[in-house]
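Q: Is it fine to ask for two folds in a single conversation?
A: Yes, each is treated on its own. Send the first.
Q: Here.
A: Result:
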Amino acid sequence: MATAFFTDLDGDNDIDILSTLYQKGAPNIANQTAQIYIQDTAITPLIFTNTGCAISSCEVSPLLPAGLGVNIDDNNCVISGTSTMASVSQIYTITATNVTGDNTATVYITVVIPGMIELIVSDIDNEPLSTQRTLSAYE
């Protein structure tokens, strides 16, 4: 966000100095709840809503499951795509950056084979508990 200030130094009703002040501050994104996606099915975009200053880049570590990516959409970091391979539950860190600084958020993502459902029980801090079980759709 920018605020422009116009100054008429000599009184002739024209602009002699144009100053622009830019809002300074890092982006601010929040953690997301654990996500379970189905292989070869497009996901509903996962939006890391930014309540801070403008985002210039979004990065993820480690790399997302094949077919998923992170980008900027409407000043938010967004994970989208179609996962092409199953993957075990893993925590991913999203980093939103601008010239002032950065901010991180996390999400657990699991990609399951169609017909399989993985139940993930998490505590209040979004940390997976040791009890996990994979069920077939018929069980």
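Q: Second one now.
A: Result:
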Amino acid sequence: MKSSTGEWSDTENVSRSQTLSFGSRIAVDNNGNPHVVWEEYTENNEIHIYYSKRKNNIWSNPLKISGNSTSNDIPDIGIDDQGRVHVVWMGGALKYVRKDGDNWTQPIDITTLGPMNPAIYVEKEGKIHVVYEHWDHEIVYLYSPDAGSTWTEPMNISNSSYYSWTADVTADKDGKVYVVWSEKGGNGLWYAVKDTDGVWGNPQKIPGTTQYLWLPAIQINEKGEIFISYSGLVNEQWDIFYTKKDTTGNWSNSINISQTSQNSNGWSLGILPSGALSIVWVEELTQDNWEIYYDEVSP
């Protein structure tokens, strides 16, 4: 954890297991408590989704939330203003669970139509937005207006002749929904917007994103400025980039954030109270040594 003075606390072991733990995602509730989900290999080669919460500087015991499914992958997590925790992941179908207080629902399938690489965004009042990559390499959107009690039918929002993959989703303070994804073959980043009437606009390409890239992340600040980070391949090396759309509708040139001599990959993007961007990625120091790197950017 990084303090207000800029100092980092000691690292903490959240999973506390004897087997492989990986693929973690984090969300923070209104009280400042972090909630983490991750994938956990078991000794009999099953993969389960686990959860833990930090409160009063103590992490709760890891809890398996994936039910009876034995092959689970790529969880994501969001929290609404009532403190309800919402988790999605791949488990054959696209799985969903919710935590109300101390009680977890049973996992349900919110779609069985070829889900891969899901991402979730939860609005303050509990509206849930989920995107994923379909097996046919289109980006698909699901929506729950009532904190996960009911779900819309899956909707193809990319409608592309290219290979669409690795999407992320967010919403602004007015309720507009923004989805960003990458197109293979040097076709850059694309995004689509759902207005407050529930109508999706046509996908638009983000200017200047022509190289081979993937793993975009999206955030919107209170002003309505859009920030996107992504991993891009330049001169046979992966680096972390970001671009910004201002309130007049103009996109900035992409800026190389990592600027290292090694491969930089993965993503996590946030907006700090100061308005600065916080970006986290993994850095390949050697073939067998990947480390976590962090930077802050004043937009």
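Q: Anything structural to flag on that second result?
A: Two points. Residues 157-299 form a domain with the Neuraminidase fold (CATH 2.120.10.10). The mean pLDDT is 91.
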